Amino acid sequence: MPMLALVWLGFGISAHAEEGTAAKTAPSAILIETSMGNIEVQLDAEKAPITVDNFRAYITEGFYAGTLFHRVIPNFMIQGGGMDESFSKKTTRDAIKIE
Question: What's the number of domains the chain is made of?
Fold first, then answer.
């Protein structure tokens, strides 16, 4: 299974910033480092500030370290980050509002 790690492409994010504020000043991209290669992801903080802040908070906490992609559909999508190497579900915070 491909391993997953998330790295900021930039600096200056505060994990304890007020909801919606970090999205306006933090980097707009992250780098997902996997055992199969890297993936750069652009974040749209203008359209989804709560989602971006939530995602960045998980990254800052190291939540995704040691997780894997548990669902891969070639040439379509990947899904991961919610399970560890033994396929145990990781504990998450409460769900956020859909934007």
Answer: 1
